[in-house]
């Protein structure tokens, strides 16, 4: 069962992966230190498929793409937060890490609850309590990047065709 | 349709007559920057998608600054990779170890110009907004898309206006102003927005002070922070500008989602308390907290005027026993000027340690890593838990004068009290 890991507001990219580890670029190596500053045991406890549920401004601070890489490397399947910092949001999508904005989810979860995330519908389910929370569905063109597994795979696929898809949806 | 400066720049760059907030545009960028932390991922990404050449080598800037000189084999390996990448692509704008912090090096070398659209794989790229351009931080993979095509998608941000009136008093600086603003707006209060500074108070704020202010725009979540170009800007750019530029200004009837006012004459020295940049108090309320390290440097406050401010406080005196004071000039130019003007001499005589032009202690990946239980006062822009070293250490952010005054006394001190 996928578990929820609940965090507060303003989790920075320094929290997600500290500066001294940035000489590494291998997601598995980065994952060994993921969230270390906030929860030193996190890397050992987290399991593939688990989901982070957080408060406001998740991923604020440095533009380091090592942050979503480390989360992915640790097997995190998605991050659900009240709001995201702008650069982290883009980086996560580009790395193929689903990020979902839900104003309510955080109050409806405690660490250890079962969680299921439906990206297509924009829904977050607490499988321990049975409560369901709305999330903002991602615009189509970002979903396409996620489905491809990140921007690189997407670009590889698009090579030869023209640029990025253009949609007038706000993100 | 009336537009803000941010909207006008994005409209021009995307080849449109007008744009409005919320729209997604694909825009051509004027300058693209990577550094030694973010760059290697960009290079690897380009290799993965099979792109051999960057779209325009003259528009790409590479700076080795975060771990400069390298402090590990891994860091050296990243530097080697970037040097090879630059050589392979004919990138002339390559600033090797020792030239300085990216956000100081680009303006000094005339890349930050009014009306331009600049992207950097570093969140503090917003610093260049001090020159009336739209500059924003992006990730490494986004940067690979830019290197491949010269273009990137942007959501046109809402703009928010910050009016600055009055005049700063002695030993109060633009850093105190921006700390106060971040405290009031909050760490996510300007998320996705473009901040535009305006008001009569700006004309008395130097280019360096404006860079300090724009630099910390991202600490409120802003996508860009802009000071419209004026005489102060043009004077700085004379003889530096890399190419011709066209300043743009907001229409007088442009619309803003928010407006706030700041009176410089009422401002006093401010401090951000651990571990959030928006936890801001007047220095006097926190005075007396013992410190172990004082760091003067970074892209926020490592310029000549910052070193001069600190030297004024420390000249002819000695820093407190047991305190390490680290100084890292933001660039070689700053370093040389500070040498010529004997500013470094005053600082070293007072007991400071001077390091190479680089990010130094700011990111905890280079010199000045702090240990468990230690307290550092820093002129940089972030005090997040664990950023400068141990997660059990504490970082306070203040102006260069506050850093110097605190080093002098060995405890947090209002610079007006020494
Ligand atoms: S000085 Fe600090 S904030 Fe500025 S670019 Fe370097 S690490 Fe980032």
Which key phrases capture this entry?
heterodimer; A: 171 residues; alpha/beta; 3-stranded antiparallel beta sheet; B: 418 residues; 5-stranded parallel beta sheet; 30% helix; 18% strand; globular
Account of the protein in words:
The complex is a heterodimer of chains A (171) and B (418). Chain A is α/β, with parallel strands linked by helices and 171 residues long. In chain A, a hairpin with a 5-residue loop joins strand 6 and strand 7 (132-134). Mean pLDDT of chain A is 91; it is low at 162-171. Chain A has helices spanning 13-16, 27-31, 42-45, 66-73, 86-94, 140-148, 151-158; strands at 4-6, 51-54, 78-81, 99-101, 115-118, 123-126, 132-134. In chain A, strands 1-2-3-4 form a 4-stranded parallel β-sheet. Chain B is an alpha/beta fold and 418 residues long. Chain B has 2 domains: 5-262, Aconitase, domain 3; 270-417, Aconitase, domain 3 (2-Layer Sandwich), CATH 3.30.499. In chain B, 30% of the residues lie in helices and 18% in strands. Chain B is built from 14 helices and 18 strands. Chain B has helices at residues 5-13, 39-49, 73-89, 102-108, 140-149, 174-185, 207-215, 231-237, 283-286, 298-301, 304-314, 332-340, 343-349, 400-409, and strands spanning 24-28, 31-35, 60-63, 94-95, 117-120, 134-137, 151-155, 159-165, 194-198, 224-226, 258-263, 270-272, 280-282, 293-297, 324-328, 353-354, 375-378, 394-397. In chain B, the strands form 5 sheets. A 5-stranded parallel β-sheet of chain B has the order 4-3-2-5-6, with helices on both faces. Iron/sulfur cluster is lined by residues 66, 101-103, 122, 124, 298-299, 359, 362-363, 380-381 of chain B. Iron/sulfur cluster (SF4) binds next to helix 4 and helix 10 of chain B.
């Amino acid at each position: 069962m996928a578990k929820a890991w609940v965090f507060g507001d303003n989790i920075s990219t320094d929290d997600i992966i500290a500066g001294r580890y940035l000489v590494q670029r291998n997601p598995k190596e980065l994952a060994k230190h993921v969230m270390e500053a906030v929860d030193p045991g996190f890397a050992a406890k987290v399991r593939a498929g688990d989901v982070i549920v957080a408060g406001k401004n998740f991923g604020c601070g440095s533009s380091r793409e090592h942050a979503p890489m480390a989360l992915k490397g640790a097997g995190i399947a998605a991050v659900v937060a009240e709001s995201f910092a702008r650069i982290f949001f883009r980086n996560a999508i580009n790395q193929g890490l689903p990020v979902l904005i839900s104003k309510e989810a955080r109050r409806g979860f405690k660490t250890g609850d079962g969680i299921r995330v439906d990206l297509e519908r924009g829904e977050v389910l607490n499988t321990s309590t049975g409560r369901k929370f709305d999330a903002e569905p991602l615009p189509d063109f970002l979903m396409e990047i996620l489905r491809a597994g990140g921007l690189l795979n997407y670009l590889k696929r698009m090579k030869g065709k023209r640029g990025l898809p253009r949609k007038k949806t706000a993100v | 349709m009336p537009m803000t400066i941010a909207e006008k720049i994005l409209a021009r760059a995307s080849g449109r007559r007008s744009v409005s907030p919320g729209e997604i545009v694909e825009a051509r960028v004027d300058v693209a920057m990577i550094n030694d932390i973010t760059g290697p991922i960009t290079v690897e990404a380009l290799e993965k998608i099979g792109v051999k050449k960057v779209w325009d080598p003259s528009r790409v800037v590479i700076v080795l600054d975060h771990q400069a000189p390298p402090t590990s084999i891994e860091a050296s390996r990243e530097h080697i990779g970037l040097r090879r990448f630059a050589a392979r692509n004919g990138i002339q704008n390559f600033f090797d170890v020792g030239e300085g912090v990216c956000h100081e090096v680009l303006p000094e070398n005339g890349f930050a110009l009014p009306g331009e659209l600049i992207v950097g794989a570093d969140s503090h790229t917003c610093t260049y907004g001090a020159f009336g351009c739209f500059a924003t931080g992006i990730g490494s993979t986004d940067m690979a898309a830019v290197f491949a095509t010269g273009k990137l998608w942007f959501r046109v941000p809402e703009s928010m206006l910050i009016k600055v009136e009055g005049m700063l008093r002695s030993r109060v600086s633009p850093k105190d102003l921006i700390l106060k603003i971040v405290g009031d707006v909050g760490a996510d209060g300007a998320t996705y927005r473009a901040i535009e500074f305006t008001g009569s108070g700006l004309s008395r704020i130097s280019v360096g002070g404006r860079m300090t202010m724009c630099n910390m725009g991202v600490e409120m979540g802003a996508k860009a922070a802009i000071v419209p170009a004026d005489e102060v800007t043009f004077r700085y750019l004379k003889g530096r500008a890399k190419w011709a530029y066209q300043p743009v200004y907001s229409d007088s009837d442009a619309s803003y989602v928010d407006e706030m006012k700041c009176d410089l004459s009422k401002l006093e020295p401010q401090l951000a308390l651990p571990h959030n940049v928006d936890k801001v108090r007047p220095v006097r309320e926190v005075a007396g907290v013992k410190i172990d390290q004082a760091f003067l440097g970074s892209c926020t406050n490592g310029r000549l005027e910052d070193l001069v401010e600190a030297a004024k406080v420390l000249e002819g005196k000695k820093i407190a026993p047991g305190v390490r004071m680290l100084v890292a000039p933001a660039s070689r130019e700053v370093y040389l000027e500070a040498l010529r003007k004997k500013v470094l001499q005053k600082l070293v005589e007072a007991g400071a340690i001077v390091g190479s032009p680089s990010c130094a202690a700011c990111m905890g990946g280079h010199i000045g890593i702090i240990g468990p239980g230690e307290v550092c006062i820093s002129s940089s822009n972030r005090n997040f838990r664990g950023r400068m070293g141990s997660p059990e250490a504490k970082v306070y952010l203040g102006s260069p004068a506050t850093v110097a005054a605190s080093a002098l006394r060995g405890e947090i001190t209002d610079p007006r009290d020494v």
